[in-house]
């Protein structure tokens, strides 16, 4: 999602507090049946890395888990379209 610089929040402590206060996310994905939106509980995984890692849970009854990679990761898929003047965005 495009966020103009004046509205971008980059302070890790503020972002961490936001995720802890509002842990429910909406994951929008392109599945076999078109666009799907799923509510996923997320938390910041403890760890020492350059980037924080969000982890979540998808219920077995939710067909979204079948579309994840074998290790359970859901990755954005960058796509370039000429009609978008060469912009790259997650699909």
Briefly summarize what is shown.
The protein contains 1 helix and 5 strands.
List the helices and strands and how they pair.
Blueprint: H1 12-21, E1 24-31, E2 34-45, E3 53-56, E4 78-80, E5 88-90
Antiparallel strand pairs: 1-2, 2-3, 4-5
Output the strand order for the largest sheet.
1-2-3
- Structure summary, number of beta strands: 5
Helix content: 10-25%
Mean pLDDT: 78
First CA to last CA: what distance?
12 Å
Number of helices: 1
Integer-rounded radius of gyration:
15 Å
Biggest sheet details = 3 strands, antiparallel
Order of helices and strands: HEEEEE
Q: Any low-confidence stretches, pLDDT <50, length ≥5?
A: 87-91
Strand content: 25-35%
**From the helix content, strand content and strand pairing, which structural class follows?**
mainly beta
Gross morphology: globular
Q: What do these coordinates show?
A:
The protein is mainly beta and 91 residues long. 11% of the residues lie in helices and 33% in strands. The protein has one helix and five strands, in the order αβββββ. The chain has one helix at residues 12-21, and strands at residues 24-31, 34-45, 53-56, 78-80, 88-90. The strands form two sheets. Strands 1-2-3 form a three-stranded antiparallel sheet. The protein is globular. Mean pLDDT is 78; it is low at 87-91.
Q: What distinguishing features does this structure have?
A:
91 residues; mainly beta; 3-stranded antiparallel β-sheet; 1 helix; globular
């Amino acid at each position: 999602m495009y966020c103009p610089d004046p509205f971008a929040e980059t302070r890790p402590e503020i972002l961490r507090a936001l995720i802890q206060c509002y842990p429910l996310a909406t994951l929008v994905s392109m599945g076999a049946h078109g666009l799907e939106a799923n509510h996923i509980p997320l938390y910041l995984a403890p760890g020492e890395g350059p980037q924080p890692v969000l982890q979540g849970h998808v219920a077995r009854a939710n067909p979204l888990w079948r579309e994840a990679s074998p290790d359970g990761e859901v990755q954005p898929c960058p796509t370039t379209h000429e009609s978008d003047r060469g912009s790259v965005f997650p699909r």
